[in-house]
Amino acid sequence: MTPRTTVCTTEQGAVRGSVSTSADGGVASFLGIPYAAPPFGPRRFLAPGPPEPWAGVRDATAYGPTAPHAPYAPPFDALIPEDVIPGEDCLNLNIWTPAPEPGAGLPVMVWLHGGAFSNGSGSASAYDGSAFARGGVVCVTLNYRLGSDGFLHLPGVPDNRGLLDQVAALRWIRANIASFGGDPDRVTVFGESAGAMSIGVLLATGMARGLFHRAILQSGACHHFLRPPSAALITARLAAKLGIEATLEAYAAVPLTELLPAQAELRAEVSARPEPALWGEAALNLMPFEPVTAGLSLPGPDCGVDLLIGSNREEYRLFLVPTGLLDAIPDSALRATTTAYGLDPAKALPVYRATRPTATPGELLSAVATDWFYRIPAIRLAESVPGSHLYEFAWRSPQFDGHLGACHALDLPFTFNRLHDPSHTPLLGPHPPQPLANAMHTAWLFFAKTGNPGWPAYDTTTRTTMVFTEDPTPENDPRSEERLLWEGRRQCCDR
Question: Is residue 121 annotated as part of the catalytic site, yes or no?
């Protein structure tokens, strides 16, 4: 049987997508549509340029090229599978819609993938937007430049090229999404990890003002960035590894076959020797490629964007359990890390241990790092924008004999309602709870449509937080004693 197709029109030309049908309605998908010019040759390290128009009808039934990046190091390469599609036209996006015609006026959800600003793509099967389309929204995923091409601080060219790519995609969406049934005035941006941190920077800087109206930040907020002096340290160290001068011309001359492995080695070096003298602020969060800015201020009540913000209860276990580090961390490292995060170990660690009386130093470090890296920044952002909604994902994976817990990235298959996707099995295990996926996915849909995910907004009196377990329930101020430890501490944008 010949697959069904349909055609929509963009400012650059017409595109042909494919149509699937199911018991709960059909979905049209349009894949690999360029939203900007290929960022190579004379356009390398520049702000994104407009896409070239095309004649006739462009095929949009297969994913386009992915942004160049080095693979995850073991064991994360097996836990978070990635697609690599070669080609220079990597600034592309994908659209799933239940109504591929102008005038439908459906809400739009735009996904920004995670990957520590160095990995990931919008074409991973994990991010298939069909379930969102079946729920009555137009879902868009996209690629943006990663690693040195996206975020290396270089003289003579704009910083944050990966963020500029995201803004270019949002502008393309505003200009074209009505042709696919979407309403350009009802756009929700949502992202996880680096994707959520990107949204935080866009909110704080106003770079994308007017291009989205709601935002969902999963495991990331307005808190991870590099000031120019720290970014310059990264640029110089990577240049030394490559044996080049730290100049635009020298970096542009390095083949990707050499540049990408050197980036991966640099990330490993930061993790192995997290010394501020070497890496500046990256020594704390272990990400050498991040947005570069002199500082950020949390958005206030006038930001004009509805926010849904949250984190996973045991985020940091992803980085400690699969590697075996959880059981290898000594008490001295726990105390040193706690101090580096701005807490007094003598006062803070007894509070964390009170609810974890049998915890090892590694388990306590995971709890402290989860709060510093994810939970407290989410709370700070919710506090800064009245009317925000806060959640915590707390379902614990059975993988690694149950030690993986409610780790980083575990929420994604529930967000996209894709528990069956084989790429999720290494983190999820064999029998994840479908009712939880239904509840979380529905909350995201309700928020995109109405600005209310289904529970009361967060405020500093009740601090209502939806806790997503197999029986999702709102709680007031979960683990308040641990939260209070961070009051008045240097955190988020003021570091």
Answer: no
